[in-house]
Design brief:
- Helix content is 32%, strand content 26%.
- It starts with 5 loop residues before the first strand and ends in a 12-residue tail after the last helix.
- It is globular, with a radius of gyration of 18 Å.
- It has helices at residues 13-23, 29-37, 61-69, 96-106, 123-131, 151-156, 167-170, and strands at 6-12, 41-51, 72-78, 80-83, 89-92, 112-116, 135-140, 159-162.
């Protein structure tokens, strides 16, 4: 990839979280920006997540705030509760439409798109982005059971990177516990 190529990163937060957790590591989002910033001119990095309706404190709130202050365009959507028809309240939320709209709008300003997700629903979006002349790389994993990455999404992408292969460049270093003197 040439340094002059413009790229944008789109992160399906839930998918990335579950993929990294299944592989046994945490993401260092500053290292992620740095790693993909060396692959071209990073125009924008987007992070998409949902939050629960009515919860005063979200466990993801510190991460969301950090991302917002450190170079990511954060898109949040509040999950709404609905009645399932049998008197049970269920949460409903999907941020895929917001990601798709941002990606379509960005396609006219970028040469490459890096999409962190394994969700096969994004296959049609990838196809639409490719029709605009943008090269699409999908980042997910094939190394979990069950497999997180949709086969249709992988086939549609121009390139695929297994998240496990990025562990050393975007994984968070785990502090070594100090040894106590005996």
């Amino acid at each position: 990839m040439a340094d002059s190529e413009k790229l944008a990163v789109f992160i399906d937060g839930s998918s990335l979280y579950h993929s990294a957790k299944a592989l046994g590591f945490d993401i260092d989002f500053l290292r992620l920006l740095t790693a993909f910033g060396t692959r071209g001119f990073l125009v924008r990095a987007y992070y998409y997540t949902t939050i629960s309706d009515g919860d005063e404190f979200q466990s993801t709130r510190p991460l969301i705030d950090w991302l917002d202050y450190n170079g990511y365009a954060v898109r949040m959507k509040t999950a709404k509760n609905y009645d399932d028809g049998e008197g049970r309240r269920k949460p409903k939320c999907n941020i895929a439409v917001e990601l798709a709209v941002d990606a379509i709008e960005a396609a006219k300003r970028i040469d490459r798109m890096v999409l962190f997700t394994g969700d096969g629903d994004f296959r049609v979006l990838v196809e639409a982005i490719q029709r605009r002349g943008v090269h699409v790389t999908v980042v997910s994993t094939l190394r979990t059971k069950p497999q997180i990455l949709s086969d249709e999404l992988r086939r549609q992408a121009d390139a695929f990177i297994d998240l496990e292969d990025l562990r050393t460049s975007i994984g968070r270093a785990v502090p070594i516990p100090s040894r106590q003197a005996v």
